[in-house]
Amino acid sequence: MPTLEPNLTLNNGVSMPALGLGVYQSPPEVTTHVVQTAIEAGYRLIDTASAYANEREVGAAIARATVDRGELFVTTKLWISDYGYESALRAFDVSMRKLGLDYLDLYLLHWPMPDDFEATIASYTAAEQLLSDGRVRAIGVCNHKPEHLDALVGRVDVVPAVNQVELHPYFAQPEVVSADSAHGVITQAWSPIGGRYVYGPKDPDNVKNVLEDPAVVAIAHKHAKTPAQVVLRWQVQCGRSAIPKSVRPERIAENIDIFDFALTPEELASIDALDTGVRGGYDPSAFNLKVFPATIPD
After folding, report:
1. Is 149 in a helix, a strand, or coil?
2. Per-residue pLDDT reduced to its tens digit, 241-296
3. How far apart are CA 134 and CA 132, in angstroms?
4. If DSSP states are collapsed to H, E and C, what string results for 234-285?
5. DSSP state, residue 109
6. How far apart are CA 163 and CA 288, in angstroms?
7. Which residues contact 133 (CB under 8 A, 6 or more apart)?
8. Cα separation of 64 and 105, whole Å?
9. Does 43 participate in catalysis according to the annotation?
10. Can you give the residue ranges of every domain in the chain?
11. Whole-angstrom Cα distance, residue 181 to residue 234?
């Protein structure tokens, strides 16, 4: 059995598990079983979003869990088609109804929407109201570059607790991590093992896989761990949160089994050195409703 996973303390004092399960692109028909499997394997952080179309299934797994609700840390996100103060509050109610929860642990704005930043500010102001009302324990953002975070913090009352961004060895985002740290914001990695880089839209004829990188493979061999475990250990040992996604029980168990070894400073540096500066996902500065016009059904 792995040792107990460490928690991170958010800037409002709330404790959040460092490692969680992401359910992006987990088909609804398997999501309940996947989340149940993760909880049984020791996961206590579950990350979903209204745009993932599986909040109901996540909620069903939580309802069937053998652990108390208070032991779980549940995150969902506001989609950009619901940005705006009143529409954000309505969308939150829809998410909570789907999840079947009385309160949420973390509510995140999914993208910064720089071409309509007033809507972003209004949405975050709504999240602040939810926090004040005790309906959420912490609020934050996703995919915010330093300039987006600076602009937001300069106009709101509550500094985000979390900034969830694409982050893995091939796209380590040191400027984002530094900006988050300067504001007291925890950086949380989506695609933490680099799957979004492997399958991303950049160059299908020049695909690179973090898990096959010689530097990562060598470190894994030394510690008798898998490359994925080494990358996730790198994430949490650097003080970040990570939410790897998997629907395979054996991989779910593998991903959380990272708290019984430590990487050396030299090994951490060798993984840091793999950064290409090239993202696999979408550029937050160009993300808007024209790119993703989807709306969220009730």
Report:
1. helix
2. 999 999 999 999 999 999 999 999 999 999 999 999 999 899 999 999 998 888 99
3. 5
4. HHHHCCCEECCECCCHHHHHHHHCCCCCCCCHHHHHHHHCCCCCCCCCCCHH
5. E
6. 18
7. none
8. 18
9. no
10. 7-286
11. 17
pLDDT in tens, 66-97: 999 999 999 999 999 999 999 999 999 999 99
7-286 adopts what CATH topology? TIM Barrel (3.20.20)
Catalytic residue of the set 52, 83, 124, 170 = 52
Task: For 274-288, give one letter per residue: b (16+ CB within 10 A) or e.
Answer: beeeebbbbebeebe
How far is C-alpha 203 from the geometric centre of its chain's CA atoms? 25
Looking at the DSSP bridge assignments, the partners of residue 241 are: 188
SS3 state at 15: strand
**Tokens representing residue 171 in the block:** 């796209």
> Which phi and psi (to 5°) does residue 60 adopt?
-65, -40
| Pairing verdict, β 7-9 and 15-17 | antiparallel
Position 62: which residue type? Answer: I
DSSP 136: B
Mean residue pLDDT across the chain: 94
Both tokens assigned to 56: 């109901």
Question: What is the per-residue DSSP string for 175-214?
Answer: HHHHHHHHHTPEEEEESTTSHHHHTSSS-TTS---GGG-H
CB burial of 240-260 (b: ≥16 within 10 Å; e: otherwise) equals: bbbbbbbbeeeebbbbbbbbe
pLDDT per residue over 150-209, tens digit each? Answer: 999 999 999 999 999 999 999 999 999 999 999 999 999 999 999 866 655 456 666 689
Q: Tokens representing 216?
A: 């990562």
- At residue 35, what is the residue type? V
